[in-house]
Amino acid sequence: MRTNIIRSERMVVSFDVVNGWTVLEVDGEIDVHTSPRIREAVIKLLDEGHRHLVLDLCFVPFLDSVGLGAVVASTKRVREHGGSLRITCPSGRSRKVFEISGLHDAYEFYDSPEDATLYAPSVDGLVHWPDH
């Protein structure tokens, strides 16, 4: 059952738990105006005990560098809590932001939330994440 965390005129963030993964679905652009909402949602979920997240970008038409910063900050928090993070459905433009930043290899990308949650989380979920 999907639960809304953030609801505004520019963005809706909701989550569902599937096979040990908390699928965080973002609907709307992730930019300078909305990126703080992503961090808020991740912090809330971590505080509630969720550790293994799938950031579902299937309904994100635009991700800018500030939005990428929110993803990176969220990843650091997840890692501090011993969790893991996967990303689904980045559009060509969004994937380009990850490539230009040099972070493409630091994340596991999946075509859909179903693909990302097929197997239960493992303890080495952020093994490729840079230590610095």
UniProtKB/TrEMBL annotation:
Transmembrane segments: none annotated. InterPro entries: Anti-sigma_ant (IPR003658), STAS_dom (IPR002645), STAS_dom_sf (IPR036513). PANTHER family: ANTI-SIGMA FACTOR ANTAGONIST TM_1081-RELATED, ANTI-SIGMA FACTOR ANTAGONIST TM_1081-RELATED-RELATED. This is Anti-sigma factor antagonist. Belongs to the anti-sigma-factor antagonist family. It comes from Streptomyces lannensis. It comes from the Bacteria. Residues 11-120 form the STAS domain.
